[in-house]
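User: Is it possible to get a 3D structure for a protein together with its bound compound? The compound here is pyridoxal-5'-phosphate. I've pasted both below.
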Amino acid sequence: MKSEKKEKIFLTQSYFKYPLPVELVEELSKELPAINQYPSGGEYTELRKNLAVYAGVKKENVFPTNGSDEVIEIVSRAYPGEALIPIPTFSQYEASADRSGLPKILVNCLVHREYKINYSEEQLERASLVWLCNPNNPTGTKIPREKIIDILQRAKGMVVVDECNYEYLGETVVDLIDKYANLIISRSFSKNFGLAGLRLGFALSHPQNIEQLANFGQYFRVNRMAEKAAEKVLKYLDYYQGIWGKIKRVRDKLVREINKLGFYAYDSEANFVLVEFKDEEEGKAVWKYLRERDIYTLVGGENEFSGLEDRFIRFTIGEDWEMDRVVKVLTEYQFYK
Ligand SMILES: Cc1ncc(COP(=O)(O)O)c(C=O)c1O
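Assistant: Yes, that's possible. Here is the predicted structure of the complex:
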């Protein structure tokens, strides 16, 4: 039986754990002999056109990158000043700010189990870079559209909305890029299309911001295989949409089952679920208990996160048999420890 599989279960990085379409892998393999050639580079015209069609914008609004981590890195260099970061969140906003020598203002947004952006007027006036992760990693929380608009109107600096989990949330503020010249959206092919290892991301913004980002990016930032993959992968949208639906069902079931066990699982709009335990001691003990049973997860203090304590564990959503085993092991922990 599948649920009796003995393999190690990796639920650490939030990547796409399902197989890629076989035909896609075959198509991509045919491109391998041509890796002696450079990618198009510079303008990346065809790639930008393809990404623009997918995102529903113009080519001039698109800036392709080597994974969306590179959007974070380039943006942090292109808009010097102060970075406003809503913790707990993805660690790379802090890491890129540090590498660029930007002072950081970390604002705690998780209060009484509710993740709510609560930047002050003064913080929004001072920051050159305002981060919003929608849905937020690791809480999985959606930031309401009205809140994003409110921040766009009040912020003096650039507002970056990280939509790397857009395909799970199904909502975007991309329609606002013409209206708000201080909006940059970041997207990825890692979590949704299974290309984490190939590294492909992109920024969406007003053309004048795209030009500014280009001043800080390398000429050949996107590799040739990633460039080819973008055009091919988008032909398999039906396949991916089916898997996104499945991941969402498996995720919501996991939240229900963990809550039934008496732990606190946050509702999630992404491909992971955050669980809060009684205290750091219990968080670390559960993490260790899972690991000893070949289930690998991320505990709060790991460097994937900014401002998350060890009483939290994040589970990436895998296949149903994997999540069934998580529930089985958590049940054992809860009742037989
Ligand atoms: C919120 C968030 N943004 C960006 C990234 C970077 O993704 P990638 O560089 O693979 O596109 C991650 C990866 O974990 C993430 O969780």
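The chain has a mean pLDDT of 96. The first helix runs from residue 22 to 29.
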